Automatic annotation (TrEMBL):
CDD domains: MopB_CT_Formate-Dh_H, MopB_Formate-Dh-H. The keyword 4Fe-4S applies. GO terms for biological process: formate metabolic process; respiratory electron transport chain. This is Formate dehydrogenase. Residues 2-57 form the 4Fe-4S Mo/W bis-MGD-type domain.
Length: 689
């Protein structure tokens, strides 16, 4: 008997719909479904990325039994024992050091929105802290902070399907063909329909190859280029004066701040020709429907929030809001990173982006959850190493569906942090590098084995559905968290994910009308969705009213700052982390899919320019030692003309040659997002290969 179960792809934020094909209780294939964003198409991860459900044990094995560390060894335990032990240890740490000594994560991956809602409720109501964060901190944290400041909502103002009808796409630090192939399809369609494509990227990426104009800026000079964009719009009177007068504030300060960033001065910093900067802005301002799309090339720098605000300012100056196919799109990376933010797995907001510092919002959640809630913002995930190693403030870490040893910068420091903590809980589906440091491991059900909701990158709530029975010994994430909360003396229990969802939307005006029923009927419901009879909102800011306190967009520019760790004699090259199309994130899922794991092999590659290859005597395929001030790894050389001399690139998917052994833990001062895109390294050939 063959069943087809409609669900949403578990990889990127494109939110593609697919049918899982199930034969005799086992997933045997996937086929595209007609979702709002994918319209019957899938990329290779959508087609072949389901196989980890069959636990082929290629990279690592599925977790099937709780484990507790005893006498230094992880040993199997019963669920009862593991829940009791976890609750007792957390209670003891809370009693001894206070609730702020405990940190928790949400998960942007398979668990879904309901489990994230339950996790942040657990941390806030059962533990009593706002120390809840998740991997948005290492990716689009700057988008949430920057766009909230500039526009009011920290999300895509536009929709993925609108991309193909834009007249101009300004693509900044974003390589959609690799990160979001189905979004890339929309970009190609836009080009086929006549759109102008401008790409800002140091590397000649697949996106840059599609571009009419490629602006190959030097790594780490984003703010200088964005300021120069603003300078041209002002100096050449290309901005929409009427729109700015009515709907935008901060013009005079903005003019002052971009005054010195003439295209000629910017050329000296960025390496982009002044004439190309002027041409790009004349085209952008001259288009009726201009849209900005950006990605990690904006967000993973220590000046990321400033650049996000600067890009939003370009769109504000030209009146590119409040209509279809305009606006600004931070295209969220993981399948449910938007959802984890929506559900309040962040240290400063409850679900629905309601600030924890707002007394009215806090009173509402206190009433609903029946407890007194903390009123100060919690810790950010990337601050934890410092808070543990230098300040000795955090003693316990409940890590849910994340692998910080593989995904966070300066892996050696992350390992040291985990080992110094008194208690580490890892709740996941596969054994991973972080779980090696756990005191308790709680095995969860996977995507495909439970129900729920994901949020696509363009604010679209969509149902995920159970297709197969989970392995014996695993439990849904939300159920595990409820059991720990109950054992800690704060009873939490739900009969279904829909019951959790309904509690959540009852507390979140932005999401109030997005019921399961509406998702079943429409397929996708984009927030804001205020009432039961509201269909949802494809693009934000209709009527040019922004979600800021006074309804106006805010302009922003400031001085450019160079990245912190510059190359020198000992470490003469720069390293930036990037992505590869066939793998995803820390690879626990794609690395355990037979088809995908054959596409590329450990160790990962390092892209270098032909000039540097010549200088160091390196040929394509050579095994290299890659060394930074923090660590040393092995990688295979990929000599590429797409790379500028002096710069190198590695994907962060691979376990051997994990580039986060090398990356620097410098953070953006506002969003606390690491500078994954810039650190200094040197290369050494491994001669006896
Ligand atoms: Fe899945 Fe993203 Fe590929 Fe769509 S584009 S199939 S969501 S990985």
């Amino acid at each position: 008997m063959v069943d087809k179960i409609l669900t949403v792809c578990p990889y990127c934020g494109s939110g593609c719909n697919l049918n899982l094909i199930v034969e005799e209780g086992k997933v045997v294939g996937a086929e595209p479904a007609n979702g709002r964003t994918n319209e019957g198409t899938l990329c290779l991860k959508g087609h072949y990325g389901w196989d980890f459900l069959n636990d082929p044990k290629i990279l690592t094995a599925r977790l099937r039994q709780p484990m507790i560390r005893k006498e230094g060894e992880l040993r199997e335990a019963s669920w009862e024992e593991a829940i009791r032990y976890t609750a007792d240890r957390l209670l003891a740490i809370k009693e001894k050091y206070g609730p702020d000594a405990i940190m928790g994560t949400g998960s942007a991956r398979g668990p879904g929105n309901e489990a994230n809602y339950v996790m942040q409720k657990f941390m806030r109501a059962a533990v009593g802290t706002n120390n809840i964060d998740h991997c948005a901190r290492v990716c689009h944290g700057p988008s949430v902070a920057g766009l909230s400041y500039s526009l009011g909502d920290g999300a895509m103002s536009n929709s993925i399907p609108e991309i193909e009808d834009a007249d101009l796409l300004l693509i900044f630090g974003y390589n959609a063909p690799v990160t979001h192939p189905i979004v890339a399809g929309r970009i190609v369609k836009a080009k086929q329909k006549g759109a102008t494509i401008i790409v800002c990227d140091p590397r000649k990426t697949e996106s840059a190859r599609l571009a009419d104009t490629w602006l190959p800026l030097k790594g780490g000079t984003n703010m200088a280029l964005v300021n120069a964009f603003g300078h041209v719009l002002i100096e050449e009177q290309l901005y929409d004066k009427d729109f700015v007068a009515k709907h935008v504030e901060g013009l005079s300060e903005y003019i002052e701040n971009v005054r010195s960033y003439t295209p000629e001065n910017a050329e000296g910093i960025t390496g982009v020709k002044a004439a190309d900067i002027r041409k790009a802005m004349r085209q952008y301002a001259g288009s009726k429907k201009a849209m900005i799309l950006y990605g990690m090339g904006v967000c993973q720098f220590s000046q990321a929030v400033d650049v996000v605000k600067g890009l939003a300012s370009i769109a504000l100056l030209t009146g590119n809001f409040g209509r279809p196919s305009v606006g600004i799109g931070p295209v969220r990376g993981q399948n449910n990173v938007q959802g984890s933010c929506d559900m309040g797995a962040l240290p400063n907001v409850y679900p629905g982006y309601q600030p924890v510092t707002d007394a009215k919002a806090r009173a509402k959640f206190e009433k609903a959850w029946g407890v007194k809630l903390p009123d100060k913002t919690g810790y950010h995930l990337t601050e934890i190493p410092h808070l543990v190693l230098k300040e000795d403030k955090v003693k316990a870490y409940y890590i849910f569906g994340e692998d910080p040893v593989q995904s966070d910068p300066n892996a050696a420091e992350v390992r040291e942090t985990l080992d110094k903590m008194e208690f580490v809980v890892v709740q996941d589906i596969f054994m991973n590098k972080t779980a090696l440091h756990a005191d308790v491991i709680l095995p969860a059900t996977s995507w495909g084995e439970h129900d729920g909701v994901y949020s696509s990158a363009d604010r679209g709530f969509q149902r995920i559905r159970k297709a197969v029975e989970p392995p014996k010994g695993t439990k849904p994430d939300w159920q595990i968290i409820c059991e720990v909360a109950t054992a800690m003396g704060y009873p939490m229990s739900y009969k279904s994910t829909e019951e959790i969802w309904d509690e959540m939307r009852g507390l979140c005006p932005k999401f109030a009308g997005a019921s399961y029923k509406k998702m079943e009927e429409q397929g996708s419901v984009q927030w804001p969705c205020l009432t039961e009879d509201h269909p949802g909102t494809p693009y934000l800011y209709e009527g040019n009213r922004f979600s800021t306190p006074n309804g106006k967009g805010r302009l922003f520019a400031c001085e450019w700052r160079a990245p912190l760790e510059q190359p020198d004699r000992d470490y003469p090259l720069t390293l930036s982390t990037v992505r590869e199309v066939g793998h995803y994130s820390v690879r626990t899922m794609t690395g355990n899919c037979r088809a995908l794991s054959q596409l590329s092999d450990e160790p990962g590659f390092i892209q270098i320019s032909p000039e540097d290859a010549r200088q160091y005597g390196i040929e394509d395929g050579h095994l290299l030692k890659v060394i930074s001030r923090r660590g040393k790894i092995t990688a295979r050389a990929q000599v590429s003309e797409r790379v500028k001399a002096g710069a190198t690139y590695m994907t962060y998917h691979f376990w051997i040659g994990a580039c986060n052994e090398l990356t620097v833990d410098v953070l953006d001062p506002i969003s606390k997002t690491p500078e994954f895109k810039y650190c200094a390294i040197r290369l050494e050939r491994i001669h006896d290969q």
